[in-house]
Design goal:
Length: 206
């Protein structure tokens, strides 16, 4: 089975934000979409390991900022490569505003945001699926949305050449390009940069 087939699906990319007990946080997700138009509802799927998922469970509300093709790799690093449990992602971060629901949305590298209130949470094992009613939304830019394919081709830096012996086997993270050297990648390996699992690594011979 070719795991790369999943990359052929068309994904948008979003910064998901929420807040509870005075703590704000956000993370990158690629699963958000409209599920009904009357009433207007959206769904998001969030990994339970993300601190933002905890905040949504507690507060029952979230914003999604829709990433555009103007988004920088630094934005992905800021919201995707570190945990809100360890750092305050909004401390000193200026490219944001609070919407009418009191949550942050991202103003740079985005083309719109949607505010929503959770109606239903469904346990999917590794993820929680939230079904939510749209409360507010605004277009911020006419720049095209960034798809996962666009991120891979035009935003994510290409891996730097590695000073290794020709023919050596390594494993490369398909999300951020991090290299793990070794013939076998541990099944429980987590990328130290972007926190993605072993399933997002590909075997490469240099």
């Amino acid at each position: 089975m070719d795991q790369k087939t999943m990359y052929k699906l068309s994904y948008g990319l979003f910064v998901l934000t929420s807040s509870s007990d005075g703590r704000d946080s956000g993370c990158i997700i690629n699963t958000a979409g409209q599920v009904t138009s009357e009433p207007n509802r959206i769904s998001i799927a969030v990994n339970k390991a993300n601190f933002t998922q905890e905040l949504i469970q507690k507060s029952g509300k979230f914003n999604i900022s829709i990433l555009s093709q103007d988004a920088s790799f630094g934005l992905f690093q800021h919201f995707g490569f570190q945990s809100g449990r360890d750092v305050d992602k909004f401390a000193g971060f200026v490219d944001c505003k609070r919407s009418s629901n009191g949550l942050f949305y991202i103003t740079a590298g985005t083309n719109g945001y949607i505010s929503a209130t959770v109606e239903q949470a469904i346990d999917l094992g590794s993820h929680t699926l939230f079904i939510a009613t749209v409360d507010d939304m605004e277009v911020l830019s006419e720049t095209a949305s960034a798809t996962y394919a666009y991120y891979q081709s035009s935003i994510k830096p290409k891996p730097a050449p590695q000073a290794t012996t020709s023919g050596k086997t390594v494993w490369r993270c398909t999300v951020c390009g991090h290299i793990y050297e070794g013939e076998e990648l541990p099944a429980d390996y987590i990328c130290p940069l972007c926190k993605h699992p072993a399933s997002d690594f590909e075997k490469v011979t240099l």
